[in-house]
């Protein structure tokens, strides 16, 4: 277990006594997710700028006080650092490091010489950050390209994973945005509602790597039920001609991640030693067509928007065979009944038993009444 460095400069426990607004001045919007809005902000009277993620609170989403100190103390060059957490009657404010280098896929499409070697370097950074998180006992649960941000605009800027503390800072209810908000990156065990662990992040890295090397998604189908069946069976191909110029090591790495059985999936520890990840067989030959397909993919994703508001039902129920009410589907354009229909028969026992990824002794903090209006 690595030592999580705590510096007074960074770590301030959930500041319950004062409102976010009394401490910070809020600035321009930086982006939006399915369930949140991110703004630039500045501590009153101090020059440094930060980012703040503002989430609406609801019955299932409150700040979990326990462990905030440790979480905010997680310190790795490939993780966006968290500074402090505030809550008002209706909102949660997660103050974090402001990164300015843009999203991974945006950079890929804008650099002239995109190659397997560039992709491998990005994947190496993602695995380093995720490996640290896993060693500290946390699972990200919401890994997707939008959460992969460069620290700055320099060519050698580290790639940072955002959003890592969110799933754990929030309450014990499983947050549907992380389970179902990004169906394209959800591991089979998540879709089945089974017990899950750190392997779900490795599946997401497999999907991200597949897209990075081809500009295509591994699992696609017009019919949602058929799509879920494919994911549950791990049915994908390295299509020709798109994959023709990609070497065997990159494909082999993906094969080891997109494994349906989470116990047989490559761990972060093993992945960081993988030969393709460390640069062997990751060619520096420019991949112009891949970059242009990633551009199209990115544009399509952005045009879809951030998706629907989350359903706050624990996912074990949300994907149960009976299926939830239709209006609760948090999957953009996807009916959870389709997902329920695609599920295999086995697994109901596990589904009832989905764990929280939080440490066991979590205290749920009651909402305060500062009435912050953001
Ligand atoms: N620390 C940060 N610094 C700068 N920009 C950020 C930061 N965090 C997020 N952003 C920007 O805000 C956008 C939305 O971030 P957010 O975390 O809300 O997205 P999301 O993960 O898709 O949301 P959700 O958690 O609701 O699924 C990001 O895609 C990014 O462009």
TrEMBL record:
SUPFAM superfamilies assigned to the protein according to its UniProt record, in alphabetical order: Protein kinase-like (PK-like)
Region of interest called Disordered, as start-end residue ranges on this chain: 300-374
PROSITE patterns with a match to the protein in the record: PROTEIN_KINASE_ATP, PROTEIN_KINASE_DOM
Positions with a binding annotation for ATP: 53
Positions with biased composition (Acidic residues): 363-374
Origin superkingdom: Eukaryota
Coiled-coil residues: none
Any Pfam family hit: Pkinase
InterPro entries: Kinase-like_dom_sf, Prot_kinase_dom, Protein_kinase_ATP_BS
Entry GO MF terms: ATP binding; protein kinase activity
Entry keyword set: ATP-binding, Nucleotide-binding
Domain Protein kinase: 24-277
Protein name: Protein kinase domain-containing protein
